[in-house]
Amino acid sequence: MIEFKGLRENVRWVHPRDEMILVLKRMAEFAARAGLTIVITSLNDHEHGDRSLHYEDLALDCQILKKDGAPSMGQMDRLARFLRKELPGGAFDVVWRTAGHHRHVHVEFDCRQRQTEHPVNA
Ligand SMILES: [Zn+2]
After folding, report:
1. Domains and CATH numbers, the chain
2. Who has the most CB within 10 Å: 30, 79, 113, 116?
3. What is the pLDDT of residues 46-76, one digit of tens each?
4. How close is the Cα of 67 to the center of ligand 1, in Å?
């Protein structure tokens, strides 16, 4: 199952994009197979890096939580691997276990494939 639940404020989505719908579909498959809940913690809301694709409705952040509320690192490892394999190659970036991404997985549709490093608050 997929839940939308912001950490600090409500999740906001301005113009739902097909590319992000595709991400949610793959996530729903993963969640159903694993019998767990993926929490979408951010879309186009909150504060992100200056040029973040969150502001273009082309990025989302998500978490899988353990019963005690802590992030399930193992399940998020599996989710990141699954998305890298299942999303069409070349345009989607799955950012996980890099600076600023140890508690949530960031997924973006970056058709420009920017060369810049992902900002800490991506
Ligand atoms: Zn993000």
Report:
1. 2-109 (3.30.1380.10)
2. 79
3. 888 888 999 999 999 999 999 999 999 999 9
4. 23
